[in-house]
Amino acid sequence: MTEAVPAVLAETANDRLKRTFSSWFWGSMIAATLLHAGTFAFWPELTAEDISFESEELEAIELPPEIEIPPPPQQIARPATPVMATAEIDEDITIAPTTFEENPIEDLPPPPEEAETDLSSAPTFTPFTVAPSILNRNDVVRAMEREYPPLLRDAGIGGQVRVYFFIDEDGVVQDYRIDQSSGHQALDDAALAVADVYRFSAALNRDKKVPVWVSFPITFQVR
């Protein structure tokens, strides 16, 4: 009869893990403790930042006193409707005729005296039916060519000057002055020099010669 030999069981990885679990566990705990202790020991010191601030003093504002708004004015009453008068008016009322027998000429007041005005003092409206006309146009043209400022003429600069003329009953120019400037003083002075050459016919108011103020243009241009 053969003697039985006991079987030897092989050790598994799970068995080895259970056997060494205690060593691994406490070794890990010690390593973690040392790591945390070293971290806190060498960690830089943290300080809180100063975030305080200063507030400006509040200034009290005085509000203006309340203004009492007056009530709107009352609506204006409409005017009353006009009513025709009930008085009776005689339709046969007549005005007595005015005769020279009842009002003699000797008793009548004199007519108002017309105030004499000096027309030559300043340009003013003067009534006339026939305007004065220029009698010496050729002389005027030659005077314009002669008085045209050379600097303006060579530069091609021209312009128009309106000149007031005061012409008496005989057609003689008694006064002249600038009515509307050309914008160039040299042209205005030249126009006044030309104005002295003008000769006119007399103006008529119906069939009577009258003194008048008239305005004529004097134009300087390069042809």
How would you describe this protein?
The chain is of the alpha+beta class and 223 residues long. The chain has a domain at 133-218: TonB (TolA/TonB C-terminal domain), CATH 3.30.2420. 26% of the residues lie in helices and 14% in strands. The chain is built from four helices and five strands; from the N terminus they run H-H-H-E-E-H-E-E-E. Strands 2-1-5 form a three-stranded antiparallel sheet. Strands 3-4 form a two-stranded antiparallel sheet. The termini are far apart.
Which properties best describe this structure?
single chain, 223 residues, alpha+beta, TolA/TonB C-terminal domain, 3-stranded antiparallel beta sheet, two-stranded antiparallel sheet
CATH topology of the domain at 133-218: TolA/TonB C-terminal domain
Secondary structure tally, helices: 4
- Global outline: elongated
Number of strands: 5
**Beta-strand residue percentage:** 5-15%
State the fourth-level CATH superfamily of the domain at 133-218: TonB
User: For the terminal residues, how far apart are their CA atoms?
Assistant: 164 Å
Give the helix proportion (percent range): 25-40%
Q: What radius of gyration results from the CA coordinates?
A: 62 Å
Secondary-structure map with pairings?
Layout: H1 13-42, H2 137-147, H3 150-154, E1 159-167, E2 173-180, H4 185-195, E3 203-205, E4 208-210, E5 212-220
Antiparallel strand pairs: 1-2, 1-5, 3-4
Helix pairs in contact: 2-4
